[in-house]
Amino acid sequence: MKKVHQLWPKPVFETEIVCEKDWLNFVYDCDYERMKIDNGSYSKDKYILNKLPELKNLIMEQVNFFVHYCLMVSKVQFYFLNSWIVKHNPEDWGQEHIHPNSLLSGVYYLDVPKDSGNIVFVKGHDNTEIFPVAISPNVTEFNYLNSKEVSFSVSQHKLIIFPSTLAHRIEPNKSKQNRYTLAFNLFCKGEFGSHESKLIL
Fold first, then answer.
1. pLDDT at residue number 155
2. How many other C-beta atoms are found inside a 10 Å radius of the C-beta of residue 162?
3. Any residues with CB less than 8 A from the CB of 40 and at least 6 apart, and which?
């Protein structure tokens, strides 16, 4: 019997939430500011989900499902730290980055025209498996064991939740329309461990 075990993979949770027209009208009317490196804009309000309570609750339902029923974590509750709308005009893009000072991050796709840019997750320098980052062997076929990056196709209604330390970038918006997404970060509180290592936050 031959078997390969994928130990300690990076969990990326993918699902859908049907987008309401009111949410779209809201994000179209938001006040935006250009990012410092001039590759996109974000809402001036960095706690935008407080203005969209229905969407906030729906996203939290999916976060709880991921944490409690996929990761099987108990006695811990996640909560939102911040949230903002990202607007990418044609030719805008997102540089490779992580989300500091959080545990989970996510993106919800509100209005993503065709060819407006997929999200690409990048293997970190600490994930060496057999070969370190400086060594790039030839492979006959790419898969989750040997790929240095994985692209997720995006569409309206899609929600993706991932560890905040997982590096990712956004491909250039090659459409002729603006692209709108919601980004957010979460942390957690609750009971951790037991006996002499028990911690309650």
1. 97
2. 21
3. 34, 86, 87, 88, 89, 92, 93, 94
